[in-house]
Design goal:
The complex is a heterodimer of chains A (108) and B (114).
Chain A (H helix, E strand, L loop, with lengths): L3 E2 L5 E4 L4 E7 L6 E7 L6 E6 L3 E5 L2 E6 L4 E6 L8 E8 L3 E3 L3 E6 L1
Chain B lengths: L4 E3 L2 E4 L5 E6 L6 E7 L6 E7 L2 E4 L8 E4 L6 E5 L8 E8 L8 E2 L3 E5 L1
Parallel strand pairs in B: 2-11
Antiparallel strand pairs in B: 1-3, 3-8, 4-5, 4-9, 5-6, 7-8, 9-10, 9-11
The chains are: A mainly beta (108), B mainly beta (114).
Amino acid sequence: QKEVEQNSGPLSVPEGAIASLNCTYSDRGSQSFFWYRQYSGKSPELIMSIYSNGDKEDGRFTAQLNKASQYVSLLIRDSQPSDSATYLCAVRWSKLTFGKGITLSVRP
Amino acid sequence: EAGVAQSPRYKIIEKRQSVAFWCNPISGHATLYWYQQILGQGPKLLIQFQNNGVVDDSQLPKDRFSAERLKGVDSTLKIQPAKLEDSAVYLCASSRNVGDTEAFFGQGTRLTVV
């Protein structure tokens, strides 16, 4: 069965720090990986997508993909209180499969 | 560009009653998804449509859940009869095509079964 694991968390970091969120997946037959942000009571919002090994940067966010080790991570630089949310890792095989999420709290 | 529209936003029903949710995807998006998100968990795919055909419904409890997308645009998801464990947020999402990378979510319908 194809699964996405997000076993760390909840995570608490001080404002201005780097938050590191990790995700592993069970099957190598995917080319598409995503990070969604979900504020409490709201729907998931796509913030990053990554398709090839290495890093992809977008503003304060960096997604990292290592297909050989089957993990994908999200780094948030200069964390802000507004980044406090649940971050969902998703992998597309035949369907888009989500992990359970990691709750991030950024302390002012 | 308008986003994915869902209604109602909230619904409270008693167990064994029926309920229906409606979704209107982003204009031009051929693929539509219904996800169930139980509190504290990630979204779980219930059914995926490509136009008006079903691509995947392997996790849809077919004894009580049904979904349709008759004209390849709007979709309805129905539960009959509802159980307590169906209490969740039901999220509709759409993407341009099945192989398209980005899926966009509606605001969801929060269902409480009492």
